[in-house]
Amino acid sequence: MKQVVADAAIREVKSDMILGLGSGSTAALMIKSLADEMRSGKLQNIKGVATSFQSEVLALELNIPLIDLASVSQIDLAIDGADEVDPGFQLIKGGGACHVREKLVASKADQLLIVVDETKLVQNLNLSFPLPVEVLPNAWKQVQEVISEMKGSSTLRMATKKAGPVVTDQGNLILDVLFDDGINNPKDIEMKINNIPGVLENGLFVDLTDKVLVGKIENNTPVVYSPSRAS
Ligand SMILES: O=C(CO)[C@H](O)[C@H](O)COP(=O)(O)O
Q1: Which of 27, 88, 97 is nearest to 62 (CA)?
Q2: In the annotation, is 118 catalytic?
Q3: The dihedral of CA 70, 53, 125, 214: what is its sign?
Q4: Which residue's C-alpha comes closest to atom 2 of ligand 1?
Q5: Does the pLDDT value for residue 207 go beyond 90?
Q6: Could you tell me if the CB of 132 is within 6 A of ligand 1?
Q7: For a pocket test of ligand 1, which of 53, 98, 117, 214 has the largest count of ligand atoms closer than 8 A to its C-beta?
Q8: What is the number of domains present in the chain?
Q9: Is 80 annotated to bind ligand?
């Protein structure tokens, strides 16, 4: 499912574009498909803007030319994965702890294209997938206390192949937050969390997404569709 949706995303790319290169497993497949199209000459003069150390390393390995976020005034198209997508195309991202740069790139892009498999579509955000919140290392406990006053329970994200917490590309920590009733007003929660001292950014992407491509299995065959945004 991820491969077909990654391939479908590349069909939206045109030569001479500056592209935001997302993070995560679906975005990684998209970056590989992009490299294939560039190698075959079907896409020319593409420049990528990485959203993470992961996408930067992959693009370098695949000889996709990169430019720094600070040196571009505008990005034509950003393609990225997501952890949850609601019917209004509001998102939770940051399962890979990359949401700070992902949001910077998405905000600078003319178009944000999200690539997911069907399991990521939800009616209400945050009922099962916790909202990632990037916090300064010495502020995590204090932020956790404020979030609990907002009726959110949070856990410090721990690394799996390192003792101790996950450290982001910016050198910060991640709190994964679940609200008792999920998130019904993403715009409000996004602002309230970002207003807590010590918070750098959270994984709510509000009113940024232009199009979603969804991969699903139909009659044992992976297919892609693009749902309409609910108003
Ligand atoms: O936001 C992200 C990383 O911070 C990813 O895009 C998100 O976690 C989806 O990843 P995957 O395609 O592996 O399911």
Answers
A1: 27
A2: no
A3: positive
A4: 94
A5: yes
A6: no
A7: 98
A8: 2
A9: yes
